[in-house]
Design goal:
Number of helices: 10
Radius of gyration: 22 Å
Distance between the termini: 35 Å
Length: about 230
């Protein structure tokens, strides 16, 4: 901050030499979990870079990516406070930048879709959640291939959405798709978790078929989710 203050005093706030210290300070704020402060400095850095280097500079692209991450950080903070509309707003801003910088077929774009899907699920907007998960899954499959653990996780996250709606058959189908991939990779924890979820869902499905309409069913709860993206 002292160094930056001197440079601003000597050169003015928009001098090209200030782009690097603005960016460095923004990175520190981001690592401290202060996305608002980071965004303010990244915006100053970006304005200088665009003015001096042009919008197509790779340095501009890097700064835009950092801004997207800061928006993502703000979204996470709002999400933790159950402020879902605000979280979606900043996830969308992050997505818009990722699409501009990387194009539609990039894992960062897929991550943004997945983050938005998780928020929609928390809001009980299940069709929107599934749409976002499907978009993310399509990108990951295209970029990384169909048999990657990242794809398996998205199968399971989509299964959780169907599970929440008591659509057990579709949930089991997706869990099985995830399991078929996980067994290829040495991750016993996730394999065991999916097996457990499938076992509980199978029992719930059987009980739903056996329980007459209007009568209480089993007190067994649905399996816990495998976790956020």
């Amino acid at each position: 901050e002292k160094c930056l203050a001197i440079q601003v005093k000597v050169h003015g706030a928009d001098h090209p030499s200030l782009a690097v210290p603005y960016s460095n300070m923004a990175l520190v704020y981001a690592e401290q979990g202060k996305p608002a402060e980071a965004l303010e400095l990244y915006d100053k850095c970006l304005a200088i870079q665009i003015k001096t280097l042009g919008e197509d500079s790779p340095f501009v692209a890097v700064t835009c990516t950092n801004i997207a991450r800061s928006y993502n950080g703000k979204a996470v903070a709002y999400q933790a406070e159950d402020k879902y509309e605000e979280a979606l707003h900043f996830y969308q801003k992050s997505l818009d930048i990722e699409l501009k910088v990387h194009g539609p077929d990039h894992t960062s774009v897929a991550n943004s879709y997945t983050n938005m899907a998780f928020v929609f699920k928390k809001m009980c907007k299940y069709p929107e959640a599934l749409e976002m998960y499907e978009k993310g899954r399509a990108i990951v499959m295209k970029v990384l291939g169909n048999d990657r653990p990242e794809v398996a996780k998205l199968h399971c996250l989509m299964a959780e959405v169907y599970q929440t709606q008591d659509k057990y058959a579709k949930a089991l189908e997706l869990y099985q798709q995830g399991l078929d991939i996980y067994v290829i990779w040495p991750d016993d924890t996730r394999v065991a978790a999916v097996h457990n979820n499938m076992a509980i869902l199978s029992r719930l499905q059987d009980q739903a078929l056996m329980t007459p309409t209007g009568l209480p069913g089993s007190s067994e709860s649905a399996p816990p989710p495998l976790g956020p993206p």
